[in-house]
Amino acid sequence: MRGQVVELQPETAADWWEVEALFDLCFAPGREALSSYRLRDGIEPLAELSLVARDAGGVLAGAIRFWPVRVAGRPVLLLGPVAVHPTRQGEGLGGALIRHALGVARRLGWTRVMLVGDAPYYSRFGFTRLDGVLMPPPTNPERVLGLALAKGGWDGIAGPVERWDSSCH
Ligand SMILES: CC(C)(COP(=O)(O)OP(=O)(O)OC[C@H]1O[C@@H](n2cnc3c(N)ncnc32)[C@H](O)[C@@H]1OP(=O)(O)O)[C@@H](O)C(=O)NCCC(=O)NCCS
Fold first, then answer.
1. Lowest CB count within 10 Å: 5, 78, 82, 129, which one?
2. What would the pLDDT profile of 51-66 be if each residue is shown by its tens digit?
3. How far is CA 110 from the centre of its chain?
4. Single pTM value for the model
5. What 3-state class would DSSP assign to 62?
6. Distance from C-alpha of 47 to C-alpha of 13, rounded to nearest angstrom
7. Which atom of ligand 1 sits closest to the CA of residue 84?
8. Phi/psi of residue 157, each to 5°?
């Protein structure tokens, strides 16, 4: 990372509202109306993977959260939201949050991750379009991206993205 040293730490309960404020600042108003939030409502984010980035003065510079979801009954990581404060963008912090969290996810044994986002940004981490994996409408299918965290992690997995607490089939 360029610029002032920033430390990545697991998000704690004390960070919650500060992280919410950062997401409100970085995303368009009404972010919680997005269909992806219906997959998150009432379900805790994954504590081991949700990180905050603070500078030496303790100022929040970026954050990432992950939720568990299911596709075809199989566990999938849903990456996001991820955001970096506008004054700290372009320093590599977003990339550091994503790479660090994905490394932890691999070590914890997660085999696949998905997100809804811009392919031109996420392709640098290896994300590609997930054909056949359907987010609740009105999501643009071009923005549904996935990455296998273990060889063949997405092979044969298709269908609607469902809440973690949906019944398995
Ligand atoms: C997207 C975001 C998290 C990236 O964080 P960051 O710390 O600025 O990213 P990095 O420093 O790791 O990478 C910067 C590079 O990504 C590129 N980039 C950033 N957002 C991009 C996007 N939406 N599409 C394509 N490229 C993008 C920058 O142009 C820059 O390119 P370069 O390396 O060629 O100079 C941050 O810009 C942000 O918070 N944006 C607003 C919220 C958001 O859109 N979150 C993602 C939801 S899908």
1. 5
2. 999 999 999 999 999 9
3. 13
4. 0.95
5. strand
6. 10
7. 39
8. -105, 115
